[in-house]
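Run log, item B.
One chain of 128 residues. Sequence copied directly from the ordering sheet:
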Amino acid sequence: QLQPQLQPQLQPQPPKPKLPLQKMVLVKYDYISTSETELGVKTDEKLIVLDESNEEWLFVQKGEQDGYIPRSYVEFIQTEQEYSVNDHQKEEQRRQQEEEARRKQQEQEARRQQQEARRQQQEARRQQ
């Protein structure tokens, strides 16, 4: 089991209110806390990141508990909220592309109709 080289020198912070898009991590290795400011975690737990300003430690929330864990013990994951936002953005981009394609098609049709009307006018003048 890997042990981080530095003990966190930061004071625990109260949990921040939940934001619509929360950064989350997935625990890769079990970690046994060695102080009151650290949080013990198990492999495959998902944790909410409250503070990632320290290069070696993350301040995280697990249920009602919070504390520091080694950054090297986790990997950042994409949350369901982020997926839904990404899906919404993709859908909006697709809708805008479809609208742009329809607008271009309408412009082309309008030009074609104008050209046809000019051709018919020229043909009518020739026949007079």
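Observations after the first pass:
- The CA atoms of residues 24 and 59 lie 11 Å apart.
- The radius of gyration is 30 Å.
Flagged for discussion on Thursday.
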